[in-house]
Amino acid sequence: MTGVLVMGAGSVGCFIGGLTQLAGVPVHFVGRPRVLTGLRKNGLRLTDQNGLDRRIPALDLRLHEQPPAGLKPDLVLLCVKSGATAEAATALGLTLPQGTPVVSLQNGVANAELARATVPQLHWHAGMVPFNIAELAPGHYHRGTDGSLAAEGRASDVALAAWQTALGRMGMKLHLHEDLAPVQWGKLLLNLNNPVNALSGRPLRAQLLERGYRRALAALQQEALDLLDAAQRPVAQLTPLPPRRLLQVLRLPTPLFRLVAARMLRIDDEARSSMADDLAVGRITEIDALCGEIVRLAQGLNRQAPLNARMQALVQAWPKRRRPHSPAELLRALGLT
Ligand SMILES: NC(=O)C1=CN([C@@H]2O[C@H](COP(=O)(O)OP(=O)(O)OC[C@H]3O[C@@H](n4cnc5c(N)ncnc54)[C@H](OP(=O)(O)O)[C@@H]3O)[C@@H](O)[C@H]2O)C=CC1
Ligand SMILES: CC(C)(CO)C(=O)C(=O)O
């Protein structure tokens, strides 16, 4: 590959862009001054829970505040939060040659579609990142859980196939799917934990070890799964257990949950959801792309999604509250006691 452009150098962009560069592909990073300053000062360090610890010196990083004019990357990775999709897509559309492939590595099910509607001249692919990435220090990004990447595409998509090969050199798998929607819905179900985690104020592992938070998550997922069934939308299984079986496991008492969900609990002690990061620094969250998507799914069926709607309201009310919800408070607020 001659070059990859990362649009949105943050946790996902720096980690996956960094791996791509370590695989021998020149990578350009477009990001905010706060992030670029850290990268210029410290270089990029990538670590993971399996012992990865690699550095890219600052001098070897290609850093930009805007997509550079005249650049013709083989592939672009869109790594901004959902609320920034339209603006980032527009900036890409102004500089990239027509037909440049762009993979959205964002959560939610609608980002690639929104980008396509905003800038139809680029070639948009949905994508999915299953693992957690945290910025541990300026320039240091850490992967705290496992999993393989997925993207909408075929082996005949030259740039995607080349990226897949490059990532393979770094031990990272990328699965290509002609239709990514079932995978995206499967990921969205898992991401219904993002607001639970964010409102808990705890790291993911500690939060999942509290039965009250797991009951809240199971209720949100059950509401979503019932609606997905009613809408006849297939949902891919992204965890060792099928989604409905996972609901039962989430509701188990904690000692049993620890035993049955040992693999799910292979999470670094400090890992938090990306929404927890947003609440911590007062950014707009992706709640509309997660619970909001379930509420819209219900509306399309002339039904309601009261739990996901309440969760959406709780996250939106965070700036007034700014105090974590205990498990009992969260269950009460969702009407689950
Ligand atoms: N972190 C994780 O563990 C995972 C995240 N995801 C998903 O990946 C996506 C990215 O998440 P994450 O990496 O955590 O987000 P981050 O906030 O860490 O990174 C995104 C970065 O892009 C910047 N940005 C936004 N718009 C532009 C622009 N027009 N030009 C340049 N930079 C821009 C943001 O700046 P600013 O804050 O100023 O907008 C921010 O620094 C989200 O959809 C998330 O849900 C998926 C799986 C795991
Ligand atoms: C990996 C996962 C599910 C949880 O960290 C995530 O997607 C996020 O934090 O947004």
Uncertain runs are: none
Find the CATH superfamily of the largest domain.
NAD(P)-binding Rossmann-like Domain
Tell me the strand order in the biggest sheet: 5-2-1-6-7-8-11-12
Terminus-to-terminus distance: 55 Å
Oligomer: single chain
Whole-angstrom Rg:
19 Å
Instruction: Please tell me the CATH architecture of the largest domain by its name.
Output: 3-Layer(aba) Sandwich
What number of structural domains do the residues give?
A: 2
The averaged pLDDT comes out at: 97
Write out the distinct hetero groups bound to the structure.
NADPH dihydro-nicotinamide-adenine-dinucleotide phosphate, ketopantoate
SSE arrangement:
Elements lengths: L3 E4 L3 H12 L4 E4 L2 H10 L1 E5 L4 E4 L5 E3 L10 E4 L6 H11 L5 E4 L6 H8 L4 E6 L4 E5 L2 E4 L5 E4 L5 H12 L4 E4 L3 H11 L1 H8 L3 H5 L2 H20 L12 H8 L3 H7 L13 H8 L9 H10 L5 H11 L1 H4 L5 H7 L4
Parallel strand pairs: 1-2, 1-6, 2-5, 3-10, 6-7, 7-8, 11-12
Antiparallel strand pairs: 3-4, 8-11, 9-10
Helix pairs in contact: 3-4, 7-12, 7-14, 9-10, 9-13, 9-16, 13-14
The site of NADPH dihydro-nicotinamide-adenine-dinucleotide phosphate has 26 residues, from α1 and α3.
Keywords: NADP, Oxidoreductase, Pantothenate biosynthesis
GO molecular function: 2-dehydropantoate 2-reductase activity
Pathway: Cofactor biosynthesis; (R)-pantothenate biosynthesis; (R)-pantoate from 3-methyl-2-oxobutanoate: step 2/2
